[in-house]
C-alpha cells in the first residue's frame, strides 16, 4: 500500500475528520466565507466611512442620540437595550454625552430612584446637523450594491437580529 493511499484526508484546520472533528471530510473552514468575519469587515468599512464624515461622534454615541430622538426620555437601561449595548458601555456613552452637554438626566416621575435620559436642546440641534451625514454614511457603505441588493441585505440583517 502506498503512502498516498494511507494518508487520511484533513480539513483546512488540519483536523482529521475521523477524529470527531465537527467539520465534514470535504468541508473546509475558509475565513472569507464566514458570516462573522464578513460582518466585521463590512462594519470596519462602515466605521471608517463614519469617522471620515462624522468626526465628533462615535458610531455608538450617534446611535444613542438617534434613539433618543425617537424615544424622547428613557431609562439608561432601556436605552442601552434598544441600541444593543451592555450596561457598562451604555453608562460610558451617556457619561461622555453628559459631559458634552448633549444629554441630560432627570428623575423618573413614576420611580424617583430611576434617572431618565433625554437630549438637551443643544444635543437635539447637534444631532439634527449630523443626521444627514449618518444617512450619507449608510449610502456610501451600501454603494457597491444595487437597489435590490440593498433592500435584500437590510431585510436579511433584520431577520438575523
TrEMBL record:
SUPFAM superfamilies: Winged helix' DNA-binding domain (SSF46785)
Region annotation Disordered: where it falls in the sequence: 1-25
Domain HTH marR-type: residue ranges: 32-161
A GO term for molecular function: DNA-binding transcription factor activity
InterPro entries linked to this entry: HTH_MarR-typ, MarR/SlyA-like, WH-like_DNA-bd_sf, WH_DNA-bd_sf
Gene3D superfamilies with a match to the protein in the record: Winged helix-like DNA-binding domain superfamily/Winged helix DNA-binding domain (1.10.10.10)
Gene Ontology process terms (BP): response to stress
Biased composition (Basic and acidic residues): 1-10
Listed PANTHER family: TRANSCRIPTIONAL REGULATOR (PTHR33164:SF95), TRANSCRIPTIONAL REGULATOR, MARR FAMILY (PTHR33164)
Protein name listed in UniProt: MarR family transcriptional regulator
Species, as recorded: Roseibium polysiphoniae
Organismal lineage: Bacteria, Pseudomonadati, Pseudomonadota, Alphaproteobacteria, Hyphomicrobiales
Amino acid at each position: 500500500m502506498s503512502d498516498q493511499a494511507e494518508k487520511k484526508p484533513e480539513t483546512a484546520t488540519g483536523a482529521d475528520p475521523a477524529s470527531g472533528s465537527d467539520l465534514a471530510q470535504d468541508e473546509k473552514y475558509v475565513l472569507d466565507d464566514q458570516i462573522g468575519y464578513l460582518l466585521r469587515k463590512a462594519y470596519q468599512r462602515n466605521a471608517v466611512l463614519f469617522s471620515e464624515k462624522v468626526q465628533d461622534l462615535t458610531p455608538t454615541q450617534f446611535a444613542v442620540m438617534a434613539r433618543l430622538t425617537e424615544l424622547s426620555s428613557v431609562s439608561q437601561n432601556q436605552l442601552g437595550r434598544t441600541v444593543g449595548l451592555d450596561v457598562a458601555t451604555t453608562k460610558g456613552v451617556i457619561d461622555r454625552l453628559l459631559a458634552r452637554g448633549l444629554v441630560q438626566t432627570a428623575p423618573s416621575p413614576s420611580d424617583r430612584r430611576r434617572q431618565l435620559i433625554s437630549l438637551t436642546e443643544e444635543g437635539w440641534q447637534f444631532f439634527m446637523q449630523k443626521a444627514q451625514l449618518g444617512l450619507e454614511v449608510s449610502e456610501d457603505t451600501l454603494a457597491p450594491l444595487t437597489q435590490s441588493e440593498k433592500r435584500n441585505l437590510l431585510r436579511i440583517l433584520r431577520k438575523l437580529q
